[in-house]
TrEMBL record:
Pfam family, one: Hemerythrin
Presence of keyword Amino-acid biosynthesis: no
All residue ranges annotated as the Hemerythrin-like domain in the record: 13-137
Designated name of the protein: Bacteriohemerythrin
Highest taxon listed in the record's lineage: Bacteria
Protein's UniProt keywords contain Membrane: no
Keywords tagged on the record: Iron, Metal-binding
Amino acid sequence: MPIFWRPQMAIGHDEIDADHRYLILLINTVELVLRFPENRPHIEMALEELRRYAAGHFEREERIQIAWGYIQFDEHRQAHRQLLRELDVLVNSIEVLLDDPAVGPEGLRDRSQELTNFLRHWLVDHVMKSDMQLVPLFKKSKVF
């Protein structure tokens, strides 16, 4: 089931909020393409775009945090690095399954559910909890 952007997800910084909207789109895309494991090029393209965009988003968000003097920057940056490592492990496992002729569509679907669950957990736990800690920073400066 797709994730939809809701106003409660906004943290009050246009660039970060736009990134979060696109990440939702990418997560929905990955979930969709993984339903069709026989279409490997689409899976690879969606996973690569998610990896690329997540890394870029974290870099942008960290630059903004530094510019705004976010005092919990180091912890947030460490959380970003951990999320990227976990994403890489899951994406690599999907790629290994795609390369294994002995794994049928059901095997890939089992692992793809793990990736989808991770992405949803990531969105809820990181964006809706960690990133929400940025709201007071932006409210103070009347970004809202």
